[in-house]
Batch of 4 targets.
Target 1
Amino acid sequence: MEKFPEFELENQDGEKVGNKDFEGKTVIYFYPKDNTPGCTTQACDLRDNLGHLNELGVKVYGVNGDSKRKHKNFIEKNDLNFDLLVDEDFGLAESLGVYRMKKVFGKESKGIVRTTFLVDEASNILKRWDNVKAKDHIDELKTYLEEEA
């Protein structure tokens, strides 16, 4: 089984979060940028379903290259109820192959490709969703978790 890489990143409050914080199952989702339409939709869907995910024994973390200040603003603006992790040098995203060349509005640039990982407390990757569509992903995630529960 593929392992999630060892990591330690700061959350929006400067607290260190890493593999040591994996309990039960953890959803770690990589998204391009705070305060953009698709990323806001995805974050708010997770926020609105966090109670249900927690009942299924699942914790949630979002990750991208934005600063603690931007994460804090995004959390406050959208009343998010989970931590966002700072990967400013894209080290973790790169090690998982989710920071790469992509086309946005016909323009090629390097960035985070929306990807979600489900990991267990031993850092085993139980499931990986690539090229996630922000709008419908929560339903896909819940269906998978409910079937596994």
Note: Residues 34 and 134 are 13 Å apart (CA to CA).
Target 2
Amino acid sequence: MTLNNRPLLRIAAILALSATTTSAFAQSAEYRRGYDDGYAAGLREAGGGRGEGRGSRIFVEDAEYGTHFASCDARRAVRYQVERNRGTVRADNQLCGDPARGESKRLRIVYRCGDSEAVRVVARENESVRLSCRR
């Protein structure tokens, strides 16, 4: 290899690398578009989370059970109860244990219906609360 060809080889290598990078970016953008389209189609099939009953969707963003000083993350249990009990959730130690023995506890839930504004509800220990998408 002569010294005169090295700059040409560097330019060719740079062009080859930029072509593969552009191709990978185009593929990831195409993948993202497909993902977004599939997600939107799923929301449309489910009714977009509007209304209640068949096709409605309650999105539990946060759920905390306990006192101001001791609490546990109850999101998973609340989501399960919402699906199983048609939106009704019971605030008790079965959600995520007893984070503050002997203390009066509360369940704080933040949820949304589709793309609506977040709704906050609170239930005292051993009370039930109903999450609803109706206005």
Note: Strands lie at 58-66, 71-73, 88-90, 106-113, 119-124, 128-130.
Target 3
Amino acid sequence: MKVIPIPVLEDNYSYILIDEKTKEAAVIDPVEPTKILNLISQTGAQLSSVTNSVFVTHHHWDHSGGNIELVAKKPGLAVYGADARIPEINYVCKDQEEFKLGSLEITPLHTPCHTKGHVCYYVVDPNTSERALFSGDTLFVGGVGKFFEGDARDMYRILFHIITKLPDDTWVYCGHEYTKNNLKFALSVDPGNETLRAKLAWCEDKPVTIPSTIGQEKLYNPFLRVNEQSMQQIVGKNDPVEVLHTLREMKNSFR
């Protein structure tokens, strides 16, 4: 598989996903359609209007707001998601329903918390065993999304019963370039974490810091460490869900 990250708007990412074997392409959260279509044309791949072509993580305008223009430019596109608020949606994907993009296997994972209809897309290339997770605004490098339509218990279930159950070498492609701020917050609560400190130093001069992997996130993302006694002592809570809630509240006010 080939993944092309596309910086859009102020700090968002859209993605082009290509099956290199068949040259079929799909797009994830295509908020700036002209930029995306121009890039696809340069790859030699085809955005099919017959098979799976547009995957939307959630309804927020900075992820789904380009759908109307994209469908107008490419009539007949299949627009996938799990929320009726997504513009132009014409296929509501079920949790763990499998789709194919050429030979790539795409599995929607329902992750309701940031929004009630949020979906992450897990992609496996059976030709290379490479794996990727398009995590939208659920999991970021060094952080997690705000709990707009859910709570800490919802996010705990998502993180520890869905996302961290995926293989550690799964690439994580998130919806925003929030890495530096996330890692600075993480370091403020976990200053002794040398892996975290090294990650922050690595990304300081980089405008694009994705992807990471699930295995890497387990080492420095504080929201994935709420079951560890060291993180519980830092926050002053014993219940991992309360630790997660407290960390998110602290992050909300972090500047």
Note: The domain at 2-252 is CATH 3.60.15.10 (Metallo-beta-lactamase; Chain A).
Target 4
Amino acid sequence: MKLLRQIASGVLLSLSLLFLMVAALAPFDESEPPEERRDMVLGGLMLGVPMMLGGGWLLWGLHRDWREEESDRLRSLFFETARAYNGCFSVMQFAMAANISGNMAKQYLDERAKEFEANFEVDEQGGVFYRFPLRQFEPPQDLS
């Protein structure tokens, strides 16, 4: 389905450019009568604009889906990394696990640190580690 949406958006955007080029160039075609040029402009706009909007809408949906998938992937890797390192790991360790740049990893971990109220630790060499609390909660006791 994703491939079909990619192909459809590419076709719609390509055709829209073709029709919009016709609409843009028709007024300068001296070999056609003025009524014919006007009809070419209107036809090009009437076909080109909706196709561009449709192709752009499909492309935006694909981008939105990709962002959601990437967000889910990073969240899953974040929890796996936290579990593997008992809640204490560096930007480098997360960047390697997620296969992303150090800047992206730092930004992501800073956001998760706020969300989960993490602390920071510095080792002997000056390396900064995020310490995410992995508390074990007991199930609530029956209050009756």
Note: The chain is about 70% helix and 10% strand.
